[in-house]
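hey so i finaly got around to running the thing on Glycosyl transferase family 2 from Algoriphagus yeomjeoni. pasting the sequence first so u can double check i didnt mess up the copy paste, my clipboard has been acting weird all day
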Amino acid sequence: MIYPKVIALVTAYNAEKFIIETLESIAAQTYANFEVILCDDCSKDNTFKVCQDFAKDHPNFTILRNEVNLGWFSNSENLWRKGVELGEYCFLHPHDDILFDGFIAEQIKVLEENPQAALAIPGMKNIGLPFIQGNSFCVELSNSITTSDLVTTLIKKQVHGWWAAYHGIHRSSVVKKILPVAKLRIGNPEHMADLLWMIKLSFHGQFISTNKVLFQKNYNSKTLSASWDFMSKKNKVGIYLAIAEEIVKSPLSLKEKLNIGKKILPGLLVKVKNQL
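ok and heres what it spat out for the 3d tokens, dont ask me to read them lol
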């Protein structure tokens, strides 16, 4: 049996107290053909050494370290660039989330069965947020029949735990088509960049849900997204304008762009106007 190569891309920063559990959950995957590239973003603690020591007993792990702190966005994009050149599939993984058995194998199965899919969506167990409890499966995304349906559903965020898709396995050939990903021009340049990346991926293929809980998302006060000011006018305007720009620049047909525009652009323009 042929097992397509999968590259796990792990971003790490100041994670010495908890990253071993994450690394162990990745190393425990039984899929026959995967490698791990971890990049420490100039941590101020012993994260880099902890990861180096772990990799000594795991030859499929490569540990890198940035010379200067790049931040989550640039560190992730740099890893994505490496991953898509080394494997047929890849996935970005935060330093504090835990993979369950079958995370890789189950997603590769659905991707191989659906060659038109851009990515697989793993079921997500939510830990630490009072308003997000239980499990998220994002079936609304995988049930989107047309590209305009998928894009619209993502933009309107009418999905419980839509960010599970960001943690899924991506088809490398599709990721190559969306790089580079521009930072927001207004507000926090990294604000909701995961949503923007998913929207760009949705231009190139379907999202397929595994309908199985395959990882645990750990939320805490130090999680990156917890630092984003979702009420900031600048951040809201920044993401709204970025979404509109990506739709205009997308490879979709004019008919598809107009269809999406009819559904979401009037609302986006109203939101932008209300923030000015």
